[in-house]
Design goal:
With 100 residues, the protein is α+β, with helices and mostly antiparallel strands. It is built from 1 helix and 6 strands; from the N terminus they run E-H-E-E-E-E-E. The protein has one domain. A hairpin with a 5-residue loop joins strand 2 and strand 3.
């Protein structure tokens, strides 16, 4: 999950870890890209008011995201596609807008 700095909006979640350095970021992106069977993608997160909040890079088709207040969105933990029968299986509350 990528939360742009200084935009007045916030993405939060319980098990998300903030990455501070480029090396760790590149390692995590490489790890996600190993999910080639599940086609990892970069998704744009928009709020209920269609305002941009950030990005999510994952091998998933759905995620649960809810509005906390006018400037905060809560992103629930993602289920690994390796532990599901058909790949991603999270219930969808908010659909991502794919970045093309």
């Amino acid at each position: 999950m990528f939360d742009p700095k200084n935009d007045g909006k916030t993405l939060i979640g319980n098990k998300w870890t903030q990455i501070e350095d480029k090396e760790t970021l590149l390692e995590l992106i490489g790890w996600i890209q190993t999910y080639i069977k599940f086609d990892p993608r970069l998704w744009k997160i928009v709020g209920p008011d269609e305002q941009f909040y950030g990005y999510l890079f994952c091998a998933c088709n759905h995620a649960v995201i809810k509005s906390v207040d006018d400037t905060t969105m809560y992103v629930y933990d993602l289920e690994s596609p390796l532990y599901t029968e058909d790949g991603p299986s999270l219930w969808e509350e908010k659909i991502f807008d794919p970045v093309r």
